[in-house]
Specification:
221 residues, alpha+beta, PH-domain like, five-stranded antiparallel beta sheet, 5 helices, 9 strands
Length: 221
C-alpha cells in the first residue's frame, strides 16, 4: 500500500496543511441515525428481537401461561432495546469522529473513533463513482478504485460500499445534499484528471467523450 494512502491526522479533517494550490471544496460527515440503519442495521436488530418477543410470548399465552409469556416478551424487548442503544451509540461515535473532505486534488476521509487516521484518495486513483440515495433524502457516494488493493476493508469500515468485500470501495456514507456533493466531486475529478493526464484523458481516440462511468459523471443507482 502506498505510504501516502494512510497518514496520522493531527488536524481534524485534514492530514496537515494542504499544499500550495490545493483547495477544500466540500466537507461533511455521516448522519448518525442513517449510519446506524445503513451500517449497523439497527432496524433489523430491533425487528429480530421484536419477533422473538411476540413469538415466545404468544407461545406461552397459548399454553395458558400468559404471565410467564409477558415476562419473556419483556425480557426479549429489553435485550433488543439495549442492543439497539449500543449500536446507535457506536454509529454516533463513528459519525462524530468522521470528516469527509473533497479538494480539487483528492478525497480525504478522516475516520476512526479510537485511533484517528486520514485516508487520502487522489482523484486519478478513482475509476468510477456511484450515487445511491435513500427515501430520507440522504445519499452515499461509493468510489471504485483503479487498484482496489490500495485500501482494505478493515481500514475503511464502515466507510465502504456494502458487500464490496474483495474489492472494497471507499464511500462517503449517509451524507446530506448527496447530489450536490456528487457534482462537486465529478467536476473536481474531471479537472484534476485533465490536469495530470492531459485533456485527452477523458476522451476516446476519436475525441468523443467516453461512455463509461468516469468520476466526473457519477452514476445514480
Amino acid at each position: 500500500m502506498p505510504k501516502d494512502a494512510l497518514d496520522l491526522a493531527p488536524i481534524r479533517g485534514l492530514p496537515g496543511k494542504p499544499p500550495e494550490g490545493e483547495r477544500v471544496l466540500w466537507q461533511g460527515a455521516p448522519q448518525t441515525w442513517a449510519l446506524a440503519r445503513s451500517a449497523c442495521k439497527v432496524h433489523w436488530v430491533a425487528g429480530y428481537f421484536l419477533f422473538l418477543a411476540v413469538w415466545r410470548g404468544a407461545a406461552f399465552a397459548l399454553e395458558g401461561r400468559g404471565g410467564e409469556g409477558l415476562v419473556i416478551a419483556l425480557w426479549f424487548l429489553g435485550i433488543g432495546a439495549a442492543a439497539v442503544a449500543i449500536l446507535t451509540a457506536m454509529a454516533w461515535a463513528m459519525a462524530r469522529a468522521t470528516t469527509y473532505t473533497i479538494t480539487n486534488r483528492r478525497v480525504m476521509m478522516q475516520i476512526g473513533a479510537a485511533l484517528t487516521a486520514t485516508v487520502n484518495i487522489p482523484h486519478q486513483w478513482i475509476a468510477s463513482a456511484s450515487l445511491k440515495k435513500d427515501r430520507h433524502g440522504l445519499g452515499t457516494i461509493a468510489l471504485e478504485m483503479k487498484d482496489p488493493e490500495k485500501l482494505t476493508l478493515f481500514m475503511l469500515w464502515p466507510h465502504v460500499r456494502p458487500w464490496s468485500v474483495n474489492k472494497p470501495q471507499p464511500a462517503l456514507r449517509c451524507i446530506r445534499d448527496a447530489e450536490a456533493v456528487a457534482s462537486i466531486l465529478g467536476a473536481a475529478a474531471r479537472a484534476r484528471i485533465a490536469e495530470v493526464e492531459g485533456p485527452g484523458a477523458l476522451a476516446d481516440p476519436e475525441g468523443e467523450a467516453r461512455p463509461s462511468r468516469e468520476p466526473a459523471a457519477i452514476a445514480a443507482e
